[in-house]
């Protein structure tokens, strides 16, 4: 997808009259309060701030209303659990990699830059060691040449050192995470603030595109189906333009969607949609972020890193 196509798809959501200085101040204030993440794990919510800043410049005449997140939202409808059971069955049938192999993933994301609010696509290819003892690789390529103040990480390779003593849930490959939905839900709620269900959802969405054994991936899908407040949307579209059914949860004026293929039930990607217009998020119905997991496969080796590649911890 070239930049022209990307802009054409999303132009209706881009504000026409930007107050760049005000947006940058808001973005920097909030971004400085958030911990930095490794380039290979670009978090949706912290880096969503670049999109938030661009949308905030629109000058939408709306008052910011504090979001009330109930402590005990209703349980998910039966249709959510049914869909995720089908997705779990599909994921559980995938091949199991050997410890000495790697999982290759090809992921694209659509984001906005910090200052000018330009839409761009980044492509993140990763080769992750299954047992964590071998050197992996991440290759990042952006669709635009960004300025120094636009918050876009540079193109290039990152060499992933072997993991060593790292908690299972923080490893690039989730090989030692419990393959049981209830145990996984307990693990997902151990960190963070706020209601239990909100913490479980946030942790689960952080893991959704992480490589994992088929049994662990199946358990994750079933665990998500048990989180209170989760709902179903009949149609959504990922960053590659593929339509599917979405498992959703709304918080802070944003509906976060996990998209699955309607026929095969394979996980496709994610999307974040504004549910209430505000001067911080922009117009209701606008897209803040989307992703598409294009390919996941098992490989025996890793490409040679480009000259000058960064070296990062597992």
Automatic annotation (TrEMBL):
Keywords in alphabetical order: Membrane, Transmembrane, Transmembrane helix
The organism's place on the tree of life at top rank: Bacteria
Spans through the membrane: 47-68
InterPro entries linked: CU044_5270-like
NCBIfam families, per the entry: CU044_5270_fam
Name by which UniProt lists this protein: CU044_5270 family protein
């Amino acid at each position: 997808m070239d930049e022209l196509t990307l802009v054409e798809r999303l132009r209706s959501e881009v504000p026409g009259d930007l107050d760049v200085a005000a947006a940058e101040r808001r973005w920097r204030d909030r971004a400085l309060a958030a911990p930095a993440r490794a380039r290979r794990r670009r978090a949706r919510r912290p880096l969503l701030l670049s999109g938030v800043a661009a949308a905030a410049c629109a000058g939408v005449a709306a008052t910011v209303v504090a979001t009330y997140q109930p402590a005990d939202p209703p349980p998910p409808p039966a249709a959510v659990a049914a869909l995720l059971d089908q997705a779990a069955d599909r994921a559980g049938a995938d091949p199991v990699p050997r410890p000495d192999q790697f999982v290759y993933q090809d992921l694209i994301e659509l984001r906005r830059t910090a200052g000018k609010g330009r839409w761009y696509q980044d492509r993140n290819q990763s080769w992750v060691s299954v047992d964590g003892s071998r050197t992996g690789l991440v290759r990042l390529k952006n669709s635009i040449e960004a300025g120094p103040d636009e918050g876009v990480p540079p193109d290039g390779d990152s060499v992933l050192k072997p993991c060593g003593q790292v908690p299972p849930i923080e490893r690039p490959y989730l090989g030692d995470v419990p393959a049981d939905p209830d145990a996984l839900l307990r693990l997902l709620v151990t960190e963070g603030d706020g209601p239990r269900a909100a913490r479980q959802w946030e942790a689960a969405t952080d893991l959704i595109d992480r490589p994992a054994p088929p049994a662990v991936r199946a358990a994750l899908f079933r665990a998500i189906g048990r989180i209170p407040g989760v709902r179903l949307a009949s149609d959504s579209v990922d960053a590659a333009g593929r339509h599917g059914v979405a498992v959703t949860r709304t918080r802070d004026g944003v509906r976060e969607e996990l998209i699955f293929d309607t026929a095969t039930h394979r996980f496709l990607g994610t999307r974040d949609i504004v549910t209430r217009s505000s001067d911080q998020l922009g117009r209701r119905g606008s897209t803040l972020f989307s992703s598409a997991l294009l390919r996941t496969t098992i490989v025996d080796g890793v490409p040679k890193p480009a000259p000058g590649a960064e070296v990062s911890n597992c």
